[in-house]
Amino acid sequence: MDFELTEEQRAFAQTARDFAQAEFAPHAAHWDEEGIFPKEAIAKAGELGFCGLYAPEAAGGLALPRLDATLVFEEMAAVDPSTTAFITIHNMATWMLGTWATPAVRDHWGPLLTTGEKLASYCLTEPGAGSDAASLKTRAELVGNEYVINGAKAFISGAGSTDVLVLMARTGDAASGASGISAFAVPADTPGISYGKKEQKMGWNSQPTRTISFDNVRIPADHLLGREGEGFKIAMKGLDGGRINIATCSVGAAQGALNAAQQYMQDRKQFGKPIASFQALQFKLADMATELVAARQMVRLAASKLDAGARDASTYCAMAKRFATDAGFTVINDALQLHGGYGYIREYPLERLLRDARVHQILEGTNEIMRVIIARRMLDGDATEAIR
């Protein structure tokens, strides 16, 4: 078991760090304050391959292991969790399209998405189907050589500003559950698609979030991803990676907060000496660093399990998502506390990191649902030996 990164992995991470400092750091606070979706900066990330990190090579991606992708996402999230989180969602949707699309659809969209020239949204959640995703009601009916789609999606990142939608819709009857769901690649400007108002959110302000309505939207039959009835399985495979991605964004945001706190403790003086000299604050910094390293290693373990195709990869992904998003938020909150009143004002990045990281405990499956996934596996007879 080797915990050390290879030279190539370190190079990926350094490239991502340099990119984030050059392209995100000068603008992240402005994007957040003004609600700007920085498509040009995302396209620059695409030029480095960051928009198709683990998409298959046949789609124009780099086909990197998920572990390597976490190194890139963490470095970018340390500067701007909101923009990075969208890039991770785009990567997930691009991987799904690149893996399950027909050759014609893959050959058209793959190079556009992996380079960041075009962007993708992932459309699973509905107004009445959040944690219970298998109960979704958006329907796709095969009529001749087209699918006709009707329904609505909610809380869709990038909606209204992206170019293709990776959509889950019901092709089976109302009682078919997960087995009646199929996946589709839907061009975002197809007639019959309309977008709701831009949601006003606590964080993640550099990416728009809207509802999407589908009114007799017609797409060619070859825009089906995989086979009919495979959509929920495809969606869950996407979410295993998505959970690692969001966990990584929490680790990155927490690292950014820890960096700021360590520097602030050296610079800030109270009672005639730097606050770094107070043992109570030293202990707080020590606990923050310990929690962060534990979260990072759990995420990398889960990514390695997913790369290896391990039987229990989904359980490890759920564990990593639950632990890293909770621990990451706590580290950021503690860093804000160490800054005192300065942590609460926008001149410093702490309050933005905190707001952006809070939603990570909710999306890609709430942390309560992560506990359900873990507990179900742990009640199996072999679980205590298999999950270690």
Low-confidence stretches: none
Report the helical percentage.
Answer: 40-55%
Mean pLDDT: 97
Order of helices and strands: HHHHHHEEEEEEEEHEEHHHHH
Task: Round the Cα radius of gyration to an integer and report it.
Answer: 21 Å
Largest sheet: 4 strands, mixed
Note the overall shape: globular
Strand order of the largest sheet: 1-4-5-8
Task: Note the beta-strand portion.
Answer: 5-15%
Distance between the termini: 14 Å
Summed up, the helix count is 12
Strand element count:
10
Going by helix content, strand content and strand pairing, the class is alpha+beta
Describe it.
The protein has 388 residues and is α+β, with helices and mostly antiparallel strands. It has helices spanning 7-24, 28-34, 39-47, 66-77, 81-100, 103-114, 231-267, 279-307, 313-338, 350-358, 367-378, 383-386, and strands at 120-123, 139-143, 146-157, 164-170, 181-187, 193-195, 209-220, 224-225, 269-270, 273-274. The model has no long low-confidence stretch (mean pLDDT 97). Strand 9 (269-270) and strand 10 (273-274) form a beta hairpin.
Describe what is shown at a glance.
With about 400 residues, the chain is an alpha+beta fold. The protein contains twelve helices and ten strands.
Q: What characteristics describe this protein?
A:
four-stranded mixed β-sheet, 388 residues, four-stranded antiparallel β-sheet, globular, alpha+beta, 12 helices
Task: Give the SSE map.
Layout: H1 7-24, H2 28-34, H3 39-47, H4 66-77, H5 81-100, H6 103-114, E1 120-123, E2 139-143, E3 146-157, E4 164-170, E5 181-187, E6 193-195, E7 209-220, E8 224-225, H7 231-267, E9 269-270, E10 273-274, H8 279-307, H9 313-338, H10 350-358, H11 367-378, H12 383-386
Parallel strand pairs: 1-4
Antiparallel strand pairs: 2-3, 3-7, 4-5, 5-8, 6-7, 9-10
Helix pairs in contact: 1-4, 4-7, 5-6, 5-7, 7-8, 7-9, 7-10, 8-9, 9-10, 9-11
